[in-house]
């Protein structure tokens, strides 16, 4: 059956259950059985070609903006899904995100990320225009990643919240207007872009400060989890496919329990927040009805694969089976599978398919390079080659070795002492005289009261007829020994 791939953007990864219901009902009427969520928190589906026109008509009537996949504009990515569950002590609260989104009156043509610097759930720099919260309330760091490059430029100033949309638009206009300088050019001049935009745009700013990032650690984002007095639920699908019927029931439960928003994530999962404990049975019923597993292994959740890429999913599955077999630890790492040269994925470790210029080359001859980011920082852009031209069947083995290298590197500086040090007590010793038969010791400081020898009498000054008070051994037979005081 011929299909038309389409994309529907959810700004910042938020969607109301009512709006999602309208989309899913239109999809259901067009004989769509499953949908997916993309790396940029958007909805993706394949609509049968013979129902596509009717689907577009229905979406138009309901004010649903639909793009053909190849013509889609990039969605605005945000760390909004992490707010309140993975970040709780930041000035960047849910209301601030909504205020920022409402200020965007233009449709961005470049990728924009809006993220909290205190979280590690949503990638910071997978956009072209990347806004990262600073320690100063309502001021943002700006990082430009020039299109089709890994080149990252840090803006010279912090920018005030209300000016994010305006400055984003001006930067976008300058980059698109001069593609020769700013597209696919690893030598792109960020300072030149700054000068051009600064000359044309007035905005509230302050001097840039050092950006403080948290160490990367991907939180476990699946299953029921406690948050204050409520629960939140994360749902991930191994094959990335979400049943339309299942999502319709999810929306129904949300509406019934007065949950106003669902959240899509860059890990192609969804999150439902503010679940009242009293509705837990409803959620368990829906999950059970569709046999949804919400406790996958952590080493399966830390992967990014290009959207709608079955080969990438197959390779991911192959590696995970190897990890399970060898009991490989992957905490603190995330992996990306890159099969297209232009894609930009988030990962500490990148498995990159070598580009085959010969279309007749056998698939069995496909090779992959394994690279990792400097310091294993997934937000970094400096790549280090670990292994080159690896056959698919051996990728898992080499990745296990790279994981071992990661932990050995992290353990190079010991945080615990190599052994427990016990306090050494130094005791003072002195030479005394001891009876060789009964082991009685004459201690000058004590004397010998039984024989009227006063305290402080040295052994040498004892009377010639002195003998052991216990066994009467003569004085001259006593031997010298060391005596520990105290």
Automatic annotation (TrEMBL):
UniProt keyword annotation of Electron transport present: yes
Pfam families, alphabetized: Rubredoxin
The Rubredoxin-like domain, residue ranges: 430-481
Keyword Protein transport attached: no
Cofactor: Fe(3+)
InterPro entries for the chain: Rubredoxin-like_dom (IPR024934), Rubredoxin_dom (IPR024935), Rubredoxin_ET (IPR050526)
Name under which the protein is recorded: Rubredoxin
């Amino acid at each position: 059956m011929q299909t038309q791939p389409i994309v529907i953007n959810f700004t910042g990864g938020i969607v109301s259950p009512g709006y999602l219901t309208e989309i899913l009902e239109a999809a259901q009427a067009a004989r769509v059985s499953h949908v997916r969520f993309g790396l940029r928190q958007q909805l993706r589906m394949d609509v049968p070609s013979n129902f596509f026109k009717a689907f577009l008509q229905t979406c138009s009537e309901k004010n649903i903006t639909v793009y053909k996949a190849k013509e889609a504009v990039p969605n605005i990515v945000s760390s909004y899904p992490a707010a309140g569950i993975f970040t709780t002590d930041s000035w960047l609260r849910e209301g601030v995100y909504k205020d920022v989104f409402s200020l965007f009156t233009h449709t961005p043509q470049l990728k924009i990320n809006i993220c909290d610097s205190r979280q590690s759930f949503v990638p910071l720099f997978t956009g072209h225009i990347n806004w990262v919260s600073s320690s100063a309330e309502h001021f943002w760091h700006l990082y430009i990643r020039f299109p089709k490059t890994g080149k990252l430029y840090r803006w010279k100033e912090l920018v005030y919240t209300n000016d994010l949309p305006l400055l984003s638009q001006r930067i976008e206009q300058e980059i698109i207007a001069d593609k020769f300088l700013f597209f696919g050019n690893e030598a792109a001049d960020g300072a030149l872009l700054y000068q051009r935009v600064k000359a044309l745009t007035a905005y509230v700013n302050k001097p840039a400060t050092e950006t403080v990032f948290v160490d990367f650690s991907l939180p476990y984002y699946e299953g029921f989890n406690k948050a204050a007095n409520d629960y939140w639920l994360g749902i991930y699908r191994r094959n990335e496919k979400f049943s339309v019927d299942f999502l319709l029931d999810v929306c129904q439960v949300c509406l019934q329990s007065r949950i106003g928003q669902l959240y899509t994530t860059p890990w192609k999962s969804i999150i439902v927040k503010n679940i009242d404990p009293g509705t837990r049975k409803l959620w368990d019923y829906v999950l059970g009805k569709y046999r949804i597993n919400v406790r996958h292994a952590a080493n399966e959740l830390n992967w990014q694969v290009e959207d709608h890429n079955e080969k990438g999913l197959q390779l991911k599955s192959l590696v995970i089976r190897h990890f399970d077999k060898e009991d490989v630890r992957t905490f603190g790492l995330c992996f990306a599978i890159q099969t297209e040269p232009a894609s930009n994925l988030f990962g500490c470790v990148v498995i990159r398919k070598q580009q085959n210029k010969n279309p007749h080359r056998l698939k069995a001859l496909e090779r992959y390079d394994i690279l990792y980011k400097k310091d294993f920082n997934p937000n970094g852009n400096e790549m280090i080659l670990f292994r080159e031209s690896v056959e698919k069947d051996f990728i898992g083995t080499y990745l296990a070795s790279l994981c071992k290298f990661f932990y050995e590197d992290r353990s190079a500086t010991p945080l615990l002492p190599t052994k427990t040090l016990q306090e050494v007590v130094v005791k003072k010793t002195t030479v005394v005289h001891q009876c060789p038969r009964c082991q009685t010791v004459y201690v000058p400081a004590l004397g010998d009261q039984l024989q009227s020898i006063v305290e402080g009498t040295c052994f040498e000054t004892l009377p010639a007829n002195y003998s052991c008070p216990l066994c009467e051994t003569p004085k001259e037979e006593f031997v010298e020994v060391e005596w520990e005081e105290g």
